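dumping this here before i forget
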Amino acid sequence: MIKLDRQGEVFILNMDDGENRWNTTFVREFSAALDEAEASTGPAALVTSSATEKFFSNGLDLEWRASKGEHRGGDREAFGKEFMALMGRIITFPMPTLAAVNGHAFGAGFMCALCHDIRFVRSDRGFMCANEVEIGMVIPKPELALFRHKLPMNTFFETVQLAKRWSGNDAVAAGVAQKSEPLETLLEASIKRASELARLGANREVYGKTKQAIYGENAAINQPHGPAYMLTNPAAFH
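structure:
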């Protein structure tokens, strides 16, 4: 399901399960790969991609959710909590992270890509989309918060309310992604950029704490006070 390789200072997490749909087994395999990368020392960065050219990740494993009895997807009851915790872990992962989105990224797959620091996308095909409203699901509030933190306001509205499908170049123009590349150079370009940023991951504590200050408990940008008050009363905001 998940393969982790290393190229110099860059860990390459390769999702290798067809459409890479999310179930509990997939969550736990992904988490185990992150454990290995995080346990390393020295400069490091993470690139997440897919072994399937058509799909980065096609969202929730609906067949597994609808099935009964034993299934390779694992414990159905554990999924919601463990999946959300994994997304929270990715967004605060203590090294630079880059999603090389080489195909469709829908629903949970889109969430995963957005939780990375940077997104490089395939220029010629593939869509990024929060398709919950299309399939009759209300987007959970933690997911809405993720989208609001990561997307410009107009892009946020079109994403969550209108279920807009962002193609590669449109995704870059809208601020969903940072760069588009042809498929044949996407992974190479992603690894190159991750290598440039790997030095920032040498101090895992600082890099992780900075992300926590942005996205974690009592995040700086969510404080009720404005920056003028915070700057003149710094002791109140550790």
